[in-house]
Design a protein that fits this description.
Layout: H1 3-9, E1 13-14, E2 18-21, H2 28-35, H3 38-41, H4 51-63, E3 69-74, E4 80-90, E5 95-102, H5 111-126, E6 131-135, H6 141-150, E7 159-163
Length: 165
């Protein structure tokens, strides 16, 4: 089965505290809340200047290619607090990279580790990947700590990778 069919079948995931689902235009206000914050975006993308910019980028990035991209939503109140995505999916090498952003109001609560675990499970068990990597800026060790909580470490230039045992 192709990656894209499996991603379609796994377009919504659930953990104990989170729902991972496709990003929707209705998420614009929640996304703008963190995408306009310099501390949250410093290592991942340029800070959004307006809600209209956020809406446009949701359409360009998440609505144009929804498979493998997820809004991170709290079950308790349906608040969208970040995104997590598969990048560089390669069927030939059975590998991918994971990228993520989380609203700083929700840092240090284990949400991103929980979301990463869900994507690793889909990647290895559903997509049949052999290798999943994530990169973090060396000046952003907190992001690296998220990776270390779940993944066995193979450091190279600020990236962590895990491979099927």
């Amino acid at each position: 089965m192709t990656f894209f069919l499996q991603l379609y079948k796994n377009r919504q995931l659930e953990t104990s505290r989170l729902i991972l689902r496709p990003v929707a235009l209705a998420d614009a206000q929640d996304m703008y809340e963190y995408a306009s914050d310099e501390e949250t975006t410093r290592f991942v993308f340029d800070r959004h200047q307006s809600l209209a910019e956020t809406e446009s980028l949701i359409a360009q990035i998440f609505l144009a290619k929804p498979l493998g991209s997820y809004a991170i939503v709290l079950k308790e109140n349906n608040k969208m607090i970040g995104t997590i995505d598969f990048h560089h999916l390669d069927e030939k090498t059975a590998s991918a990279e994971i990228g993520y952003t989380l609203n700083k109001k929700y840092w240090r609560r284990g949400y991103m580790t929980e979301a990463c675990r869900a994507l690793l499970k889909v990647g290895f068990e559903e997509l049949g990947l052999n290798r999943i990597c994530a990169r973090h800026d060396l000046d952003n060790p907190a992001s690296g700590m998220v990776m270390q909580k779940k993944w066995s470490e193979e450091k190279c230039c600020g990236s962590l990778c895990t491979a099927r045992s």
